[in-house]
Protein backbone atom coordinates (compact mmCIF):
# COMPACT_ATOMS: atom_id res chain seq x y z
CA UNK A 1 0.00 0.00 0.00
CA UNK A 2 1.24 3.48 -0.92
CA UNK A 3 -0.06 6.47 1.07
CA UNK A 4 -1.75 9.25 -0.91
CA UNK A 5 -1.59 12.95 -0.19
CA UNK A 6 -4.71 13.09 2.08
CA UNK A 7 -3.37 10.52 4.56
CA UNK A 8 0.02 12.23 4.56
CA UNK A 9 -1.62 15.60 5.32
CA UNK A 10 -3.71 14.04 8.13
CA UNK A 11 -0.61 12.37 9.60
CA UNK A 12 1.32 15.67 9.56
CA UNK A 13 -1.64 17.52 11.11
CA UNK A 14 -1.95 14.85 13.81
CA UNK A 15 1.76 15.12 14.59
CA UNK A 16 1.58 18.91 14.90
CA UNK A 17 -1.49 18.59 17.13
CA UNK A 18 0.39 16.06 19.27
CA UNK A 19 3.18 18.59 19.84
CA UNK A 20 0.58 21.14 20.89
CA UNK A 21 -1.01 18.65 23.31
CA UNK A 22 2.34 18.37 25.08
CA UNK A 23 1.92 22.00 26.17
CA UNK A 24 -1.87 21.83 26.69
CA UNK A 25 -2.65 18.48 28.39
CA UNK A 26 -6.36 19.27 28.59
CA UNK A 27 -6.64 18.47 24.86
CA UNK A 28 -5.13 15.00 25.22
CA UNK A 29 -8.45 13.14 25.09
CA UNK A 30 -9.56 15.02 21.98
CA UNK A 31 -6.25 14.25 20.29
CA UNK A 32 -6.51 10.57 21.18
CA UNK A 33 -10.04 10.40 19.80
CA UNK A 34 -8.95 12.11 16.55
CA UNK A 35 -5.93 9.83 16.23
CA UNK A 36 -8.08 6.77 16.80
CA UNK A 37 -10.68 7.85 14.22
CA UNK A 38 -8.02 8.64 11.62
CA UNK A 39 -6.23 5.35 12.26
CA UNK A 40 -9.49 3.41 12.07
CA UNK A 41 -10.44 5.13 8.82
CA UNK A 42 -7.00 4.43 7.36
CA UNK A 43 -7.15 0.75 8.33
CA UNK A 44 -10.68 0.25 7.03
CA UNK A 45 -9.84 2.09 3.80
CA UNK A 46 -6.72 -0.07 3.33
CA UNK A 47 -8.70 -3.28 3.88
CA UNK A 48 -11.37 -2.19 1.40
CA UNK A 49 -8.67 -1.31 -1.13
CA UNK A 50 -7.10 -4.75 -0.79
CA UNK A 51 -10.49 -6.30 -1.61
CA UNK A 52 -10.83 -4.40 -4.89
CA UNK A 53 -10.37 -6.78 -7.80
CA UNK A 54 -7.94 -5.90 -10.55
CA UNK A 55 -9.75 -4.18 -13.43
CA UNK A 56 -10.02 -5.69 -16.89
CA UNK A 57 -7.11 -4.63 -19.06
CA UNK A 58 -6.45 -4.76 -22.81
CA UNK A 59 -3.68 -3.20 -24.91
CA UNK A 60 -4.24 -2.43 -28.59
CA UNK A 61 -0.94 -2.11 -30.38
CA UNK A 62 0.13 -2.39 -34.04
CA UNK A 63 2.12 -5.46 -35.00
CA UNK A 64 4.92 -3.30 -36.37
CA UNK A 65 6.28 0.20 -35.89
CA UNK A 66 8.60 2.49 -37.79
CA UNK A 67 11.87 3.77 -36.34
CA UNK A 68 11.73 7.34 -34.96
CA UNK A 69 7.98 7.61 -35.65
CA UNK A 70 5.39 8.37 -32.97
CA UNK A 71 2.73 5.65 -32.64
CA UNK A 72 -0.46 5.63 -30.54
CA UNK A 73 -0.98 2.83 -28.02
CA UNK A 74 -4.52 2.32 -26.72
CA UNK A 75 -5.26 0.90 -23.28
CA UNK A 76 -8.79 -0.30 -22.52
CA UNK A 77 -9.46 -0.59 -18.76
CA UNK A 78 -12.78 -1.89 -17.39
CA UNK A 79 -14.28 -1.30 -13.95
CA UNK A 80 -15.97 -4.64 -13.30
CA UNK A 81 -17.35 -3.55 -9.92
CA UNK A 82 -21.07 -2.99 -9.53
CA UNK A 83 -20.68 -0.13 -7.05
CA UNK A 84 -18.15 2.64 -6.65
CA UNK A 85 -16.08 4.51 -9.22
CA UNK A 86 -12.54 3.29 -9.75
CA UNK A 87 -9.68 5.79 -9.52
CA UNK A 88 -6.37 4.57 -10.87
CA UNK A 89 -3.06 5.52 -12.47
CA UNK A 90 -1.69 3.40 -15.33
CA UNK A 91 1.93 3.18 -16.42
CA UNK A 92 2.39 0.81 -19.33
CA UNK A 93 5.81 -0.85 -19.39
CA UNK A 94 7.10 -0.03 -22.87
CA UNK A 95 10.59 -1.19 -24.00
CA UNK A 96 13.52 0.81 -22.66
CA UNK A 97 14.52 1.74 -26.23
CA UNK A 98 11.26 3.71 -26.63
CA UNK A 99 10.39 7.29 -25.77
CA UNK A 100 6.90 7.83 -24.37
CA UNK A 101 4.47 10.69 -24.03
CA UNK A 102 1.38 11.10 -21.79
CA UNK A 103 2.38 8.53 -19.16
CA UNK A 104 1.28 7.81 -16.47
CA UNK A 105 -2.44 7.97 -17.24
CA UNK A 106 -4.82 9.06 -14.44
CA UNK A 107 -8.31 7.65 -14.96
CA UNK A 108 -11.66 7.59 -13.18
CA UNK A 109 -13.97 4.78 -14.33
CA UNK A 110 -17.61 4.51 -13.31
CA UNK A 111 -18.93 1.09 -12.16
CA UNK A 112 -19.61 -1.31 -15.01
CA UNK A 113 -18.01 1.03 -17.54
CA UNK A 114 -14.70 1.14 -19.41
CA UNK A 115 -12.28 3.82 -20.58
CA UNK A 116 -10.08 3.90 -23.68
CA UNK A 117 -6.89 5.81 -22.91
CA UNK A 118 -4.13 6.61 -25.40
CA UNK A 119 -0.45 7.38 -25.02
CA UNK A 120 2.33 7.66 -27.60
CA UNK A 121 5.66 5.90 -28.04
CA UNK A 122 8.58 6.45 -30.40
CA UNK A 123 11.08 3.62 -31.07
CA UNK A 124 14.74 4.63 -31.03
CA UNK A 125 16.13 1.24 -32.10
CA UNK A 126 15.09 -1.45 -34.57
CA UNK A 127 14.37 -5.10 -33.82
CA UNK A 128 11.84 -7.26 -31.97
CA UNK A 129 10.70 -5.79 -28.64
CA UNK A 130 8.18 -6.76 -25.98
CA UNK A 131 5.70 -4.75 -23.89
CA UNK A 132 5.70 -6.95 -20.73
CA UNK A 133 2.74 -5.52 -18.84
CA UNK A 134 1.19 -2.53 -17.12
CA UNK A 135 1.57 -1.11 -13.60
CA UNK A 136 -1.70 0.06 -12.04
CA UNK A 137 -2.15 2.13 -8.91
CA UNK A 138 -5.69 1.61 -7.64
CA UNK A 139 -7.15 4.27 -5.36
CA UNK A 140 -8.88 3.22 -2.11
CA UNK A 141 -12.57 4.13 -1.54
CA UNK A 142 -11.65 7.03 0.80
CA UNK A 143 -8.74 7.99 -1.48
CA UNK A 144 -6.21 7.55 1.33
CA UNK A 145 -4.11 4.80 -0.31
CA UNK A 146 -2.80 3.52 -3.62
CA UNK A 147 -2.60 -0.20 -4.15
CA UNK A 148 -0.07 -1.33 -6.76
CA UNK A 149 -1.10 -4.11 -9.14
CA UNK A 150 0.96 -5.39 -12.07
CA UNK A 151 -1.09 -6.67 -15.00
CA UNK A 152 1.00 -9.10 -17.04
CA UNK A 153 -0.08 -8.64 -20.65
CA UNK A 154 2.73 -9.31 -23.11
CA UNK A 155 2.75 -7.76 -26.59
CA UNK A 156 5.53 -8.33 -29.12
CA UNK A 157 6.27 -5.70 -31.75
CA UNK A 158 8.68 -5.47 -34.66
CA UNK A 159 10.40 -2.13 -35.18
CA UNK A 160 11.26 -1.64 -38.84
CA UNK A 161 13.46 0.95 -40.53
CA UNK A 162 11.75 4.26 -41.15
CA UNK A 163 9.99 3.63 -44.43
CA UNK A 164 7.82 6.76 -44.32
CA UNK A 165 9.42 7.95 -47.58
CA UNK A 166 8.07 4.83 -49.30
CA UNK A 167 4.64 5.31 -47.75
CA UNK A 168 4.52 8.83 -49.18
CA UNK A 169 5.62 7.58 -52.58
CA UNK A 170 2.81 5.04 -52.57
CA UNK A 171 0.27 7.81 -52.03
CA UNK A 172 1.11 9.56 -55.31
CA UNK A 173 2.03 8.75 -58.85
CA UNK A 174 5.65 7.66 -58.68
CA UNK A 175 6.88 9.98 -61.43
CA UNK A 176 5.46 13.15 -59.86
CA UNK A 177 6.56 12.23 -56.35
CA UNK A 178 10.11 11.40 -57.36
CA UNK A 179 10.45 14.76 -59.10
CA UNK A 180 9.14 16.55 -55.98
CA UNK A 181 11.69 14.76 -53.77
CA UNK A 182 14.62 15.64 -56.03
CA UNK A 183 14.74 12.38 -57.98
CA UNK A 184 14.66 12.64 -61.75
CA UNK A 185 12.52 9.94 -63.34
CA UNK A 186 10.81 10.32 -66.71
CA UNK A 187 10.34 8.25 -69.82
CA UNK A 188 12.47 9.45 -72.68
CA UNK A 189 11.14 10.35 -76.08
CA UNK A 190 12.82 8.64 -78.98
CA UNK A 191 15.82 7.23 -77.10
CA UNK A 192 16.25 4.31 -74.80
CA UNK A 193 17.02 0.64 -74.56
CA UNK A 194 13.72 -1.17 -75.12
CA UNK A 195 11.07 -0.30 -77.73
CA UNK A 196 7.80 0.79 -76.13
CA UNK A 197 5.37 2.03 -78.78
CA UNK A 198 4.77 4.07 -81.94
CA UNK A 199 3.08 7.46 -81.68
CA UNK A 200 2.68 10.68 -83.60
CA UNK A 201 5.72 12.91 -83.86
CA UNK A 202 5.93 15.65 -81.23
CA UNK A 203 7.96 18.80 -81.29
CA UNK A 204 11.32 18.12 -79.68
CA UNK A 205 11.56 14.48 -80.79
CA UNK A 206 14.91 13.46 -82.20
CA UNK A 207 15.06 12.85 -85.95
CA UNK A 208 16.57 9.46 -85.15
CA UNK A 209 13.33 8.52 -83.38
CA UNK A 210 11.24 8.85 -86.54
CA UNK A 211 10.05 5.53 -87.99
CA UNK A 212 10.16 6.27 -91.71
CA UNK A 213 8.31 3.10 -92.77
CA UNK A 214 5.40 3.89 -90.46
CA UNK A 215 5.55 7.53 -91.57
CA UNK A 216 5.20 6.46 -95.23
CA UNK A 217 2.25 4.21 -94.42
CA UNK A 218 0.43 6.78 -92.29
CA UNK A 219 1.33 9.82 -94.41
CA UNK A 220 2.35 11.72 -91.27
CA UNK A 221 5.40 11.73 -89.03
CA UNK A 222 5.50 8.76 -86.63
CA UNK A 223 8.05 8.43 -83.82
CA UNK A 224 9.31 5.43 -81.91
CA UNK A 225 9.07 5.70 -78.12
CA UNK A 226 11.45 3.74 -75.94
CA UNK A 227 11.63 2.93 -72.26
CA UNK A 228 14.52 2.03 -70.01
CA UNK A 229 15.40 -1.64 -70.01
CA UNK A 230 13.56 -3.71 -67.41
CA UNK A 231 14.28 -6.99 -65.66
CA UNK A 232 17.70 -5.92 -64.42
CA UNK A 233 19.04 -6.60 -60.93
CA UNK A 234 20.33 -4.34 -58.17
CA UNK A 235 22.15 -5.80 -55.16
CA UNK A 236 23.17 -3.88 -52.04
CA UNK A 237 26.16 -4.65 -49.86
CA UNK A 238 25.45 -3.22 -46.40
CA UNK A 239 28.40 -2.51 -44.14
CA UNK A 240 27.42 -3.62 -40.61
CA UNK A 241 30.83 -2.85 -39.09
CA UNK A 242 31.94 -0.34 -36.49
CA UNK A 243 31.87 2.73 -38.75
CA UNK A 244 28.14 2.34 -39.20
CA UNK A 245 27.71 2.92 -35.45
CA UNK A 246 28.43 6.64 -35.96
CA UNK A 247 25.36 8.83 -35.57
CA UNK A 248 24.05 11.81 -37.49
CA UNK A 249 21.20 13.17 -35.43
CA UNK A 250 19.11 10.48 -33.78
CA UNK A 251 19.89 7.77 -36.33
CA UNK A 252 23.06 5.76 -36.84
CA UNK A 253 24.77 5.68 -40.22
CA UNK A 254 23.51 2.14 -40.61
CA UNK A 255 19.89 3.24 -40.17
CA UNK A 256 20.45 5.98 -42.76
CA UNK A 257 21.80 3.40 -45.21
CA UNK A 258 18.77 1.17 -44.59
CA UNK A 259 16.42 4.04 -45.41
CA UNK A 260 18.36 4.79 -48.61
CA UNK A 261 18.36 1.13 -49.59
CA UNK A 262 14.60 0.83 -49.13
CA UNK A 263 13.88 3.95 -51.18
CA UNK A 264 16.13 2.89 -54.06
CA UNK A 265 14.70 -0.64 -53.91
CA UNK A 266 11.20 0.77 -54.21
CA UNK A 267 12.18 2.86 -57.24
CA UNK A 268 13.98 -0.08 -58.86
CA UNK A 269 11.01 -2.40 -58.32
CA UNK A 270 8.67 0.14 -59.87
CA UNK A 271 11.05 0.24 -62.83
CA UNK A 272 10.63 -3.50 -63.28
CA UNK A 273 13.98 -4.47 -61.77
CA UNK A 274 14.82 -6.89 -58.95
CA UNK A 275 16.44 -5.96 -55.61
CA UNK A 276 18.49 -7.97 -53.10
CA UNK A 277 20.94 -7.41 -50.27
CA UNK A 278 24.05 -8.88 -48.68
CA UNK A 279 25.01 -7.70 -45.18
CA UNK A 280 28.73 -7.71 -44.42
CA UNK A 281 30.17 -7.53 -40.91
CA UNK A 282 30.65 -10.07 -38.14
CA UNK A 283 28.01 -12.16 -39.93
CA UNK A 284 26.84 -12.18 -43.53
CA UNK A 285 23.20 -12.58 -44.48
CA UNK A 286 21.81 -12.93 -48.00
CA UNK A 287 18.51 -11.91 -49.57
CA UNK A 288 18.53 -12.97 -53.22
CA UNK A 289 17.25 -10.40 -55.75
CA UNK A 290 13.50 -10.56 -56.28
CA UNK A 291 10.86 -8.67 -58.21
CA UNK A 292 7.32 -7.76 -57.29
CA UNK A 293 5.47 -5.70 -54.70
CA UNK A 294 6.20 -8.15 -51.87
CA UNK A 295 9.96 -7.63 -52.22
CA UNK A 296 9.90 -4.51 -50.03
CA UNK A 297 8.23 -6.49 -47.23
CA UNK A 298 10.83 -9.21 -47.69
CA UNK A 299 13.68 -6.71 -47.42
CA UNK A 300 12.14 -5.12 -44.33
CA UNK A 301 11.76 -8.46 -42.59
CA UNK A 302 15.30 -9.41 -43.55
CA UNK A 303 17.07 -6.32 -42.17
CA UNK A 304 14.81 -4.97 -39.41
CA UNK A 305 16.70 -6.66 -36.55
CA UNK A 306 20.25 -6.41 -37.95
CA UNK A 307 22.45 -4.12 -35.87
CA UNK A 308 25.95 -2.80 -36.64
CA UNK A 309 28.71 -4.22 -34.44
CA UNK A 310 32.16 -2.90 -33.40
CA UNK A 311 34.07 -5.06 -35.88
CA UNK A 312 36.08 -4.36 -39.02
CA UNK A 313 34.42 -5.19 -42.32
CA UNK A 314 36.33 -7.48 -44.66
CA UNK A 315 35.70 -5.90 -48.08
CA UNK A 316 37.45 -8.65 -50.03
CA UNK A 317 35.54 -11.45 -48.29
CA UNK A 318 32.24 -9.65 -48.88
CA UNK A 319 33.05 -9.14 -52.58
CA UNK A 320 34.10 -12.78 -52.94
CA UNK A 321 30.91 -13.99 -51.28
CA UNK A 322 28.72 -11.82 -53.51
CA UNK A 323 30.58 -12.90 -56.65
CA UNK A 324 29.80 -16.52 -55.81
CA UNK A 325 26.15 -15.88 -54.93
CA UNK A 326 25.29 -13.42 -57.72
CA UNK A 327 26.36 -14.79 -61.09
CA UNK A 328 24.12 -12.59 -63.22
CA UNK A 329 25.45 -9.15 -64.15
CA UNK A 330 23.96 -6.64 -61.72
CA UNK A 331 24.31 -3.15 -60.32
CA UNK A 332 26.11 -3.48 -56.97
CA UNK A 333 25.53 -0.65 -54.49
CA UNK A 334 28.17 -0.74 -51.74
CA UNK A 335 26.95 1.25 -48.71
CA UNK A 336 29.84 1.98 -46.35
CA UNK A 337 32.21 4.67 -45.05
CA UNK A 338 35.56 4.66 -46.84
CA UNK A 339 38.77 5.75 -45.12
CA UNK A 340 42.26 6.21 -46.51
CA UNK A 341 43.45 2.95 -44.94
CA UNK A 342 40.76 1.06 -46.87
CA UNK A 343 42.04 2.07 -50.30
CA UNK A 344 44.04 -1.02 -51.21
CA UNK A 345 41.57 -3.57 -49.82
CA UNK A 346 38.61 -1.79 -51.37
CA UNK A 347 40.40 -1.55 -54.73
CA UNK A 348 40.88 -5.33 -54.75
CA UNK A 349 37.25 -5.88 -53.73
CA UNK A 350 35.84 -3.59 -56.43
CA UNK A 351 38.15 -5.09 -59.08
CA UNK A 352 36.73 -8.49 -58.17
CA UNK A 353 33.15 -7.25 -58.45
CA UNK A 354 33.76 -5.38 -61.69
CA UNK A 355 34.70 -8.54 -63.52
CA UNK A 356 30.98 -9.15 -63.90
CA UNK A 357 29.08 -6.28 -62.28
CA UNK A 358 28.73 -2.51 -62.29
CA UNK A 359 29.60 -0.94 -58.92
CA UNK A 360 28.35 2.14 -57.07
CA UNK A 361 30.28 2.98 -53.92
CA UNK A 362 28.18 5.13 -51.56
CA UNK A 363 30.48 6.49 -48.86
CA UNK A 364 28.77 8.23 -45.95
CA UNK A 365 30.55 11.33 -44.69
CA UNK A 366 30.18 12.45 -41.08
CA UNK A 367 28.40 15.79 -40.74
CA UNK A 368 30.93 16.80 -38.07
CA UNK A 369 33.64 16.95 -40.74
CA UNK A 370 31.78 19.58 -42.76
CA UNK A 371 30.95 21.52 -39.63
CA UNK A 372 34.62 21.53 -38.60
CA UNK A 373 35.84 23.19 -41.80
CA UNK A 374 32.91 25.66 -41.88
CA UNK A 375 33.57 26.84 -38.33
CA UNK A 376 35.38 30.16 -37.82
CA UNK A 377 39.01 29.88 -36.71
CA UNK A 378 39.71 31.88 -33.54
CA UNK A 379 42.47 29.96 -31.79
CA UNK A 380 45.39 27.63 -32.38
CA UNK A 381 43.20 24.63 -31.49
CA UNK A 382 40.64 25.76 -34.09
CA UNK A 383 43.39 26.07 -36.70
CA UNK A 384 44.75 22.65 -35.82
CA UNK A 385 41.29 21.11 -36.15
CA UNK A 386 40.70 22.89 -39.46
CA UNK A 387 44.02 21.74 -40.92
CA UNK A 388 43.69 18.13 -39.77
CA UNK A 389 40.11 17.88 -41.04
CA UNK A 390 41.10 19.24 -44.44
CA UNK A 391 43.99 16.81 -44.62
CA UNK A 392 41.68 13.93 -43.79
CA UNK A 393 39.12 15.02 -46.39
CA UNK A 394 41.85 15.38 -49.01
CA UNK A 395 43.01 11.81 -48.39
CA UNK A 396 39.40 10.64 -48.50
CA UNK A 397 38.85 12.38 -51.85
CA UNK A 398 42.06 10.83 -53.18
CA UNK A 399 40.81 7.36 -52.22
CA UNK A 400 37.57 8.05 -54.07
CA UNK A 401 39.41 9.44 -57.10
CA UNK A 402 41.46 6.26 -57.41
CA UNK A 403 38.30 4.17 -57.34
CA UNK A 404 36.62 6.37 -59.95
CA UNK A 405 39.66 5.93 -62.18
CA UNK A 406 39.01 2.20 -62.03
CA UNK A 407 35.42 2.68 -63.26
CA UNK A 408 33.62 2.69 -59.90
CA UNK A 409 30.78 5.19 -59.49
CA UNK A 410 31.46 7.01 -56.20
CA UNK A 411 28.92 8.97 -54.17
CA UNK A 412 30.48 10.75 -51.19
CA UNK A 413 27.63 12.41 -49.31
CA UNK A 414 26.00 13.21 -46.00
CA UNK A 415 23.40 10.85 -44.60
CA UNK A 416 20.46 13.11 -45.53
CA UNK A 417 21.61 13.27 -49.15
CA UNK A 418 22.28 9.54 -49.53
CA UNK A 419 18.82 8.35 -50.75
CA UNK A 420 18.60 10.98 -53.49
CA UNK A 421 22.24 10.58 -54.52
CA UNK A 422 22.20 6.83 -55.09
CA UNK A 423 18.73 6.84 -56.68
CA UNK A 424 19.70 9.53 -59.20
CA UNK A 425 22.88 7.61 -59.98
CA UNK A 426 20.86 4.43 -60.55
CA UNK A 427 18.48 6.26 -62.89
CA UNK A 428 21.39 7.82 -64.81
CA UNK A 429 22.95 4.39 -65.28
CA UNK A 430 19.62 3.05 -66.53
CA UNK A 431 19.34 5.83 -69.08
CA UNK A 432 22.91 5.42 -70.26
CA UNK A 433 22.26 1.74 -70.90
CA UNK A 434 25.60 0.68 -69.45
CA UNK A 435 24.13 -2.01 -67.18
How is this structure best described in words?
The chain is an alpha+beta fold and 435 residues long. The protein has three domains: 56-160, Immunoglobulins (Immunoglobulin-like, Sandwich), CATH 2.60.40; 188-227, no CATH class; 233-432, Rossmann fold, CATH 3.40.50. It contains twelve helices and 22 strands. The chain has a six-stranded mixed β-sheet with strand order 19-18-15-20-21-22, sandwiched between helices. A five-stranded antiparallel β-sheet has the order 1-11-10-5-7. β10 (133-139) and β11 (145-151) form a beta hairpin. α9 packs parallel to α11 (380-405). The longest helix has 26 residues, at 380-405. The radius of gyration is 33 Å and the shape is elongated. The N and C termini lie far apart (71 Å). 29% of the residues are buried.
List keywords for this structure.
435 residues, alpha+beta, Immunoglobulin-like, Rossmann fold, 3 domains, 6-stranded mixed beta sheet, 5-stranded antiparallel beta sheet, 12 helices
Summarize the structure.
Helices cover 37% and strands 29% of the residues. The chain has 435 residues and is an alpha+beta fold.
List the helices and strands and how they pair.
Blueprint: E1 2-3, H1 5-23, H2 28-50, E2 56-60, E3 64-66, E4 71-78, E5 86-93, E6 98-101, E7 105-109, E8 114-123, E9 127-131, E10 133-139, E11 145-151, E12 155-160, H3 164-170, H4 174-180, E13 194-200, H5 212-218, E14 222-227, E15 233-239, E16 247-248, E17 251-252, H6 253-270, E18 274-280, E19 285-290, H7 294-303, H8 315-325, E20 331-336, H9 343-354, E21 358-364, H10 367-374, H11 380-405, E22 409-413, H12 418-432
Helix pairs in contact: 1-2, 6-7, 6-12, 8-9, 9-11
